[in-house]
Amino acid sequence: MGGKKQEKKSFRSKIAAVKRYLPLYFMMLPAMAYLLINNYLPMSGLVLAFKKYRARDGIWGSEWVGFKNFSFLLKNKELPILFRNTIGYNICFIIVNMVLGVILAILITEIRNQKFRKFAQSSILFPFVVSIIIVSYMVRGFLDPEAGLMNHILEAMGRDPVSWYDVSKYWPGILIFVNTWKSVGYGCILYISAILGIDASLFESASLDGANKFQKIWYITLPFLKPTVITVALLSIGKIFNSDFGLFYQVPQGSGLITNVTQTIDTFVYKALTTHSDIGMSAAASFFQSVIGFLLVMIFNAITNKISKENALF
Amino acid sequence: MVRSKQDKWSEVAAYVIMSIVMLIILFPFVLLFMSSITEETSLLVNGYSIFPKDISFAAYKYIWQSKDTIVRAYAVTIGVTIIGTALNVLITAMVAYPLSLDKLPGKRILSFIILFTMLFSGGLVPTYMMYTTVLKIKNTYLALLMPNLLFSAFNAIIVKTYLRCNIPPELYESARIDGAGELTIFRKLVLPLGKSIFVTIGIFAGLGYWNDWMNGLYYVTDSSKYSIQQLLNVMVKNIQYLTQYGKSTGTGQIPSISLRMAIAFVAMLPMLILYPFLQKYFEKGITLGAVKG
Amino acid sequence: MKRRILSGLLIAAMMTGTLAGCGAKDTGNGSQGTETAEGEASDINFDEDPYEVNMLIALPAASPNDSEVKRVTDKINEITLENLNMTLNLTILPFSAYLEQIQLELSSGADLDIFVAPTAYGPSWVDAGFLTDMGPLLDQYGQETLESYPSKELATAPNLNGYVYGVPVHKEISQQTSIYFRTDILDKYNIDVSNVKTIEDVDAIFDEVSAKEPDMWMVAMDNLGWPELEPMDYIGGLETYAVLDPTENSTVENVFETDVFKKWTTYAHKWFDKGWINSGAASDTESYYTYISSGQAFAFFNDSGHPLAEKDQESNCGGTDLTMVNLEESIATTATASSFCYCISSGSEDPAKAMQMLNFIETNADVMNLLNWGVEGEDYVVNSDGLLDYPEGKDASTVGYHIGAGWILPNQFVCTPWCTDGADIYEKMEEYNNNTTISQLMGFTFDPTPVQDQISAVSNVKAEYYKALVTGAVDPDEYIEKLVQEMKDAGSEEIIAEMQKQVDEFLQNKSE
Questions:
Q1: Chain centroid to CA C96: how far?
Q2: Residue B170 and residue B73 in one domain
Q3: Looking at the domain assignment, is residue C165 inside a domain?
Q4: Is A279 part of the contact surface with chain C (CB cutoff 8 Å)?
Q5: CA neighbor of A51 nearest in space, from A296, A287, A307, A255
Q6: Residues C223, C221: Cα–Cα separation, whole Å
Q7: What is the signed CA dihedral for C66, C70, C72, C75, rounded to 10 degrees?
Q8: What's the pTM?
Q9: Which has the higher per-residue pLDDT, C179 or C396?
Q10: Do residue B77 and residue B203 come from a single domain?
């Protein structure tokens, strides 16, 4: 009986809490309305993964076909390679971008010369302004077998030119390098802002206590960066089955002989769709990627909840 | 403050390493620019080079032909970028601040609703139908502003994390005790204290709008409303079609390779000019000590 | 956890009623169209409000400004209002935006009447319910259109099992593997190419020229195709399976297993090893025209071999003087006869009216001239020979509207020729079309749905080796075997069996 009363009371206090926070809920309204329009309403498209879409019948009127749309992807013999490449590259990208991003962020904030620091901050973001198609042309400028800069350098050194676009062994390195070049700035600038947000008095009192540079980085900077790093990592895990089509298709210029190290789920789906453009097939592929990403985020979020609750996503 | 020897050494190391890193980052841009002013045949015969033998501005001359269209497209992009970035940061801040409060009832569910949009998407066709048949924004400037770019779940979650870690809840509590309403707290505390993260996501949002050509591709077919990226993208692809399939429409020989590079350079240029001016907002945020004191 | 996902989905499900409604608004329009088609063709009701036909065309170049298009369509509308009581709302898109736009519009059921489509997309678009069956409409309202082709077979070549999804644009209908030599080099070394008939002859010429021009590439290649040295009819739009000698034979083969492919790749590999082919060709995105106009290469292969093609190719190479030599007999197949076709979308509000409009455009010289060249006096003038030219002091980039790409418009053959093309360009083209050999599979389109998964898998395997093989970058003795084996593992034989079945059915129906 007492329990029931308490429940009632806690319900009432919940109502009171909600009332108190009402203005905050109102503040969230624009974002939520936007998500409804931009994301949740169109999510009806998810059912297309299980339908044979016909424009005349609309999304709901189209015929259900079960898992038929998935078969082109899941029954394919190349599936293990697609999985290996997609996940393998993504793990490399996450780790490299994180480690390098944090190191560069710390280095940049160490620089005292204002002009140099601003210049460094700007330049790491420059690659962002270049579309991946242009990046593929820039890469071609280096790796073109005839006109490329790399082969000119090799020839000047008296070595044989390499036909870069035909040899698999170079491409994991090239792709990781290009990806890092293009996107390390993104994480880096986030980490810079996190470092800038650290209360300066912490460093001062640490200096007074005789802490050296590395101790300050280890005991102050890194712990402050931890939540941001964990958040970025968790969010990247959700995209681990997705890949940047431009990076894996445009940058290797669709070259065939290196596909065993350049093809990912997205490039495979693209090629399949060029033989037969079908909304159901692309819906099925992205549904599959989403479900796996979703499960992984759930698992890792649960683990984070166990280890350091405050850093979990929800 | 006395600086230790170690501090000096670590700063020197920072200079050296960053200089090397910047060289790696910037070198491709130098190559990009130099190949944009290399004579087309020389580019094919002698190859790409930082010190080209034959310099030619033919690519830029070709672009100059459509200067009116380019200027208009710049205006569209700049307008959309400014409005979009401002709205994006405001909306994000308004949703991230409440979520950063541990006590907010329903916080986990709301966070989940936001996160979920990062993982699942209904695909292009339903989104297209939403925007064209329900909201009817095709061929309006809203089409460049609204779809996908106005709010990003990623940014919201990042800002939430930042606010939760960097602003102690006691600050809000004492403000509330002083009688401040939520809006006042948001304006007087959250916005200034989170400045560096807001500038950061502002940069992300700004780059997102600046670089966007997908919305244009899907929702804008009226060439007078093209954004700069869409216009340049159309130019690059048209050149590709023209050279690949021939069927030239009498426009004469186009310097295709150097032109692509020149177009890429034109697309970046204003960003390179404007970016240093944005930097002043990127200074060390107001320290918490100062506010507390 | 499960509950939360469900609630997310539920919100989506509740609200999507509206979306489904939008998509479905035109349900059953196709059949309606055929019903209204019962009426008398020439019956035009001038009392009702004019019907607006939404038409979309695509260009491989920048499209004219909307205001310029409006200026031209206003002129067109004067004609169509008077004759049909209809108006035209024309959208012109550059290729770069076309494919995304058209697929979005078609899948959202937008109210689009007439549009241009790559014929190869037909089967999947019919399968997705995007396109109206034009067969009955053509019989009812399109007699003149049908008559503008050499045969009804050609007019309705874009059909899937009798479901006519488009009418082809009017252009040369056949393909003919040919080689184009740079005339300046031929003259320089006094080489006579009049006896060149086969690849062996070409090889001999390369031998001769390369001795004198050791740094020059003998042939510039791209990796999009290879010079088929014998007539063949590709089945299924993948350029992977074909019927060789398609006037006599009807056996579907894997192209990569044929002798002719072996022959080509062997030559290509030999040339590649000698440094006669641009070495980056397997991954290059540049076209071979680039290397001809830069003076780095001596020759290239192309599959257009009609008498007028030489001039086209010369302008593609920046005005380089070329000499064309045909290496095979010309052959017309479903694919070559209809690169692009004009379709009526299933979202069209009145397919019968759309068909009437299309028929009118196809046969009306004034409308076609407006579409192709713009407004007389503003965008072009008629010169003393009765041919068209730019107004004084203007060119392609300074006139407001100049498409000049008849091969993607409904019917360029009714246009007045442009002065640089010569007065008899269209007659010559029609004559070439009338004299070409036609594959017995003309009008056959493979329906890939029964073997879709195998096709995805096979095309993925093909993508791995194809570019390197056709550009000679790898040894055919080793790689063809690899390719064929992997294709078999991916289900190649099932695809061939299905193709053979459909081909046999087609031929049987034809003979009945």
A1: 16
A2: yes
A3: yes
A4: yes
A5: A287
A6: 7
A7: 180
A8: 0.87
A9: C179
A10: yes
**Which domain range does residue B89 map to?**
67-292
Q: Report if residue A232 sits inside a domain.
A: yes
Q: What is the pLDDT of residue C100?
A: 85
Q: Do C464 and A56 touch (CB under 8 A)?
A: no
Task: Write out the E strands in C197-267.
Answer: 217-219, 232-235, 241-244, 252-254
Q: Are residues B51 and B73 in the same domain?
A: no
* Tokens encoding C298: 């001596």
Check: CB of residue B234 under 8 Å from CB of residue C97: yes
Is C12 part of the contact surface with chain A (CB cutoff 8 Å)? yes
Residue A121 CB coordination number (10 Å): 23
CATH number, residue A144: 1.10.3720.10
The domain of C381 spans 24-170+338-440
Helix (H, G, I), strand (E, B) or coil at B178: coil
Angstrom distances, CA of residue B92 to CA of A85, A226, B281: 34, 22, 18
In a domain, C435, yes or no: yes
**Of the candidates A138, A137, A143, A145, the residue with the CA atom closest to the CA atom of residue B31:** A138
- Give pLDDT, residue B278: 67
Residues A60, A78: Cα–Cα separation, whole Å: 33
Q: Which of C24, C30, C467 is the closest to A57 by Cβ?
A: C24
Instruction: Give residue B285's pLDDT.
Output: 43
Judge whether A170 lies within some domain. Answer: yes
Query: Rounded to an integer, what distance in angstroms lies between the CA atom of residue B37 and that of residue C124?
Result: 44
Query: Which subunits sit against C, judged by 3+ Cβ pairs under 8 A?
Result: A, B
Closest CA relative to residue B203, chosen from C211, A128, C47:
A128
| Tens of pLDDT, residues A136-180 | 989 999 999 888 999 999 999 999 999 999 999 999 999 999 999
Enumerate the residues of chain B whose CB falls inside 8 A of the CB of residue A200.
Answer: 284, 287, 289
- Kindly report the nearest CA distance between residue A206 and chain C, in angstroms: 44
Strand C241-244 with C232-235, pairing: antiparallel
Considering chain B, what is the average pLDDT of its residues?
85
Low-confidence residues of chain A: pLDDT under 50: 1-3
- The whole domain housing A81 covers 72-311
Integer distance in angstroms from the first to the last C-alpha of chain C?
63
pLDDT digit string (tens) for C441-451? 999 999 998 99
A263 vs C contacts (CB less than 8 Å): 460
Instruction: Please indicate whether, in this complex, the C-beta atoms of B22 and A120 are within 8 angstroms of each other.
Output: yes
Which chains border A (3 or more CB–CB pairs < 8 Å)?
A: B, C
End-to-end CA distance of chain A: 34
With an 8 Å Cβ cutoff, is B54 touching chain A?
no
Is A55 inside any structural domain? no
Asked if B17 and B140 sit in the same domain, the reply is no
Q: How many CB pairs under 8 A join B and C?
A: 126
Question: What pLDDT shows up at residue C7?
Answer: 30
Number of domains in chain A: 1
CA B81 to CA B274: how far, in whole Å?
A: 12
Measuring CA to CA, which residue among C268, C262, C271, C177 is closest to residue C227? C177
CATH number, domain of C373, equals 3.40.190.10
For residues B14 and B87, state if they share a domain: no
Query: What's the domain count of chain C?
Result: 1
The answer as to whether C153 is a domain residue is yes
Does B275 lie at the interface with A, CB-CB under 8 angstroms?
yes
CA angle A199, A205, A209 (to 5 degrees): 150
Structural tokens at position A170: 């170079």
Q: Where are the alpha helices (DSSP H) in B37-186?
A: 40-45, 58-65, 67-100, 107-119, 124-129, 142-145, 153-166, 169-177, 182-185
In chain C, which residue's Cα lies nearest the Cα of A48? C20
CB–CB contact A255 C466 (8 Å)? no
Tokens standing for C25? 């608004």
> Do B243 and B120 share a domain, yes or no?
yes
Task: Check residue C239 and report its DSSP letter.
Answer: S
DSSP B287: P
